[in-house]
Amino acid sequence: MKEYLGILIIILLSSLVAILIVGISYFLGERKPKKVKLLPYECGMTTIGPSRRRISVKYYIFAMLFLIFDIEVLFMYPWAVITKDLKLFGFVEMFIFIVILLIGYFYVWRKGALEWE
Amino acid sequence: MMDDLSLVMPEVVLCGFGLLLLLIEAFLGEKSKSLLGILTLIAASSALFFVLRLSRLNGEAFFGLYSLDPLASLIKGLILVILVLITVASIRYVERENAIAGEYYPLLIFSTLGMMIMVSTTNLLTIFIGVELMSISVYVLCGMFRENVRSAEASLKYFLLGAFASAFLVYGISLLYGSTGSLDIRAYSEAISAGNYSSVLMLGVALITVGFAFKIALVPFHMWTPDVYEGAPTSVTAFMAAGVKTAAFVTFLRIFYTAFLPVIKDWGGVLWLIAVITMSYANLTALVQENIKRMLAYSSIAHAGYILVAFVTGERSLSSSIIYYLFAYAFMNIGAFTCVMLMERKGEENLDIDSYAGLSGKHPLLSLCLSIFLLSLTGVPPLAGFMAKFYVFSTAIKAGYVWLAIIGVLNSVVAAYYYLRVIMYMYFKEPVKEIGEIDLSSPYFLVVFICIFFLLYLGIFPRDLTLLAEGAVSVFF
Amino acid sequence: MAEIVFKWIVFFIASILSIFSSVMMVTRKNPVHSALWLVVTFISLAVLYFLLNATFIAISQVIVYAGAIMMLFLFVIMLIHLEKGPEEIGKMTVSRIFAVVLTVLLFVEILVGVYFYRAWTVKPEPMPFGDPKTVGKLLYTKYLFPFEIASVLLLVGIIGAVVLAKRRKM
């Protein structure tokens, strides 16, 4: 457990820094909101319609694929820690695992799901 | 390790073919569809070959996470036969409905792989992975008609509710693990027989029951069934009705009869109630359905209720009736849904029962085949549906559940109304609407004839299967 | 001794934070705010896993849930254009009240089940059971079979995403 103390200190320090940065500018800064200031662009075209548009389903495919390969990598993490103890056996197992997902990768690639149309 | 591999050969072969098919689909594209269908048949038959070759073996592999026994072999055989039949029926169907993508076949194979894994293990972790593999493939298969709103709805609904049910299942598994320290279901029976169990374990049993009740579609966990069965492509509906239900029921049976039989005295009441509600609700609702797929969906819920009648008794020696019922049920449903696929035209036409009016005049053979399946679903001798019901209800009577058997028989009488109504429409009613040209190609009829053969064979010579089933359920002793 | 007290303090903060943030998550009207509160829930749960010595689970909680799944949530919220949130969110309908009552009942039932009966019959596992090394040893020897099947499961997930969401080349 002790070896994770560093993580806690980092979390505390970084939250402190974040709070300080936002807090100091909040208290010291001067705010005079005007209509023009609150526009997305102070100069140039006025925006038309709501700024929040429906985004394309394409992002979703990328997110989904990322998620799946992310989980694949997660499986490699405990494997990497003990790969020396597992010797060839562990290598073969992970090889099969990756080959199956590699087929998935080829599939995705051939289907053009990695292209931005 | 090599011995382990030889035991899982059916799964390895099936998985290898699935991956191969996926690559072929990706590299050849749309034009490879019929090739994929044929390769799926080869995959299923070679897996079936290995299942038959290993069928006399008993053994465990992979540190006890995979086990081969007569029950597993028998059910794996059935599941692969279901895959073969569905694939043959799909070959023309997929060509006709060009909305269905080529991934259809690999997904069928992976789903079957999941079923095979879940029925041939005693470890809850492997069971869970198998259930998920089966379910996720089927979620995608349901949404294969992408432009069709109802198909998309079916997929989404099944996915959301199914994910919820999986959560129940995995929560139940975690509670069981927490209270006994093991994931192997055989360990639970020891703990329970020793009287050494806690309320946490009971909670785990309850949650696992909920999870499987969803997959099997027992009332009150059936809400998804009519919409999903109606919205999914008809071949997928047949696959769900036959395959998913068989695999889920057998896994449920294995978990319960291996581990939780001592507590079935406490649980019998709940399961009794579920069986009664399932049969009655499904049959009464099926009476008013106008869409044949919806009607068959409710009918499949009702049949799950009949099977549960035998399940409730908790008699290990009589549980072969459940296995028999699952066989008969699979063949009648695949047959009936194949007839529906025959009648159906592109774009989901001809699915209402009105289209069947006067069918016997135009297509006497099709009407005859559909009538046979409907009669078997009703439970008319000499078809297998009759013997199945007979075994199930006599199991209940032998075990002293006379009232449950009576309710079951009454329900079968109610069910006869909506099955016979379709037959009545086909033979004694004038056509009310134009049904257009239907595709009477031979693959469909091949499936239909195989199903009829099995229904007659199992109905007239039930002994063969009963012996096999008795051998299979001997694993519970 | 100091370590135990320290652990208690961390546990206290993390558990309060997880309950608070999950309540905030379900009561926010803006779905994006809900999603951000969910991140807080995930991370405080990760801290709880750490305290239980399940370090691998804690790490995967952060990598998969707080990272990848959260991103998926935000994409879906933007995809179906929900930033404003539906109007009827605050209304109390009969079915909602019923759902709340049922949920509370289930919660109480589990609580009673766990605490007032003979709950656990096994002793807890020896301490270092959840670090990556122990998990790896189990996963790559004993649980090798489900592990390989998991790759097929992930593959089916890939197929599903492509089949259902990708525009097909006609």
Q: What oligomeric state is this?
A: heterotrimer
Distance between the termini of chain C: 69 Å
Instruction: Return the average pLDDT of chain B rounded to an integer.
Output: 90
What CATH architecture label of the largest domain in chain C applies?
A: Up-down Bundle
**Number of E-type strands of chain C:** 0
Helicity level of chain B: over 70%
Short description:
The complex is a heterotrimer of chains A (117), B (477) and C (170). By secondary structure, chain A is mainly alpha-helical.
Explain this structure.
The complex is a heterotrimer of chains A (about 120), B (about 475) and C (about 170). Chain A has helices at about 5-30, 35-40, 55-110. Chain A is built from three helices and no strands. Chain A has one domain (about 1-40, about 55-110): NADH:ubiquinone/plastoquinone oxidoreductase, chain 3 (Methane Monooxygenase Hydroxylase, Chain G, domain 1, Up-down Bundle). Chain A is mainly α. With about 475 residues, chain B is mostly helical. Chain B has a domain at about 260-475. Chain B contains 20 helices and two strands. In chain B, helix 4 packs across helix 20 (about 460-475) and helix 14 (about 320-345) runs antiparallel to helix 19. The longest helix of chain B has about 30 residues, at about 150-180. The model of chain B has no long low-confidence stretch (mean pLDDT about 90). With about 170 residues, chain C is mainly alpha-helical. Helices cover about 75% and strands about 0% of the residues of chain C. In chain C, helix 1 packs antiparallel against helix 2 (about 30-50) and helix 2 (about 30-50) runs antiparallel to helix 3. The longest helix of chain C is centred in the first third of the chain and has 26 residues, at about 1-25. The chains are: A mainly alpha (about 120), B mainly alpha (about 475), C mainly alpha (about 170). The interface of A and B includes residues 103, 104 and 107 of A.
